[in-house]
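Q: What changes when guanine is included in the input?
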Amino acid sequence: MSVSIDGKALAAKLRGELKEKVAAYKAERGDIGLAVVLIGEDPASQVYVRNKIKACEEVGIKSFSYHLPAETSQAEAEALVDELVASDKVHGILVQLPLPKHLNERKILARIPAAKDVDGFCAENVGNLAMNRETIVACTPFGVMKMLEEYGIDPKGKSAVVLGRSNIVGKPMAMLLLNADATVTVCHSKTKDLKDVCAAADILVVAIGRAKFVTADMVKEGAVVIDVGMDRDENGKLCGDVDFENVKDKAAYITPVPGGVGPMTITMLMYNTYIAASRR
Ligand code: GUN
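A: The predicted holo structure follows.
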C-alpha cells in the first residue's frame, strides 16, 4: 500500500501560514487585492471561481469579483482587464478559462502585465520559468512541486514523465521538474510506446483529462504518481486520470482525487497573489 499524498491537509497548512504573512503585509502596506473575472455561465468555472473567492476570504486577501454575461464583447472584456491593470487596489488578475468561443483569449490575457499575472500564463512569466529565473509559476504545477517537497521527494536525478503538454499544466510542470534536476520526458497523444515510457518513470505526473487512463501496467513499482485530472467516471463520480484503486498498491506515493492536487491549485493562487503584492 502506498502513501496517499494529502493535498487537502497541506493546502490547509499553507493557507494558515499565508494568512499570517498576509496579515503582516496588511499591517504595513494595506490590503492585497485579487480580481477574479468570469465570463459566461460554464458550471465548472462558476464552482472554481466561488472556491477562489472563498480561499481569498480564508487568507485575508480582498477579492474583486466580476461576472460578465456570455454575450460580453471582446472590447468590453478588454476594457475591464485594462481597468483592473490600472487599479492600485488590484495586485493580481485572474481571468477564468475557458472563455466563451467568440472571445479572443490570447488577446485578453495579453493585456495582463507579468507583475499581475497570478496564473503565471503570460509569455514573460513562462519565459522566466524556462530560464529558471524568478517568476510567477502556474498554480497547479507549482502546487505539485510543493507536494513533492512536503513529502521529501527530491526530483534531482530522477526520471520524471509528464503525461500531457498543456500550457497550463504539462509544459510548466516539465520545466519545474527540469529546474529541479530531474530528467524529464513529456508525453502526449502522439507518443509511441506510451506505456513503456510511463512505466520507466520515478515520478509520473498525469494531466490529460481522461478518466482512469493510467493503470498499474503503466506504473513502475515504487513510483510517485501525481494525478492532476478532474474527471467523471462511468457512474458520474469524480475521479482522476489515474485508476487509483488499480495503481495504489504499486506506487510508493499517489495523490487521490478529490483531495490531492485540487486544493493545492487554489492555495498557490493565493500564494502568487501575495507574491505579486510583495514584489510591487
Ligand atoms: N481554468 C482551469 N484552470 C484554470 C487556471 O488555473 N486558471 C484560470 N485562469 N482558468 C482556469
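Observations recorded in class: Residues 7-29 form the longest helix (23 residues).
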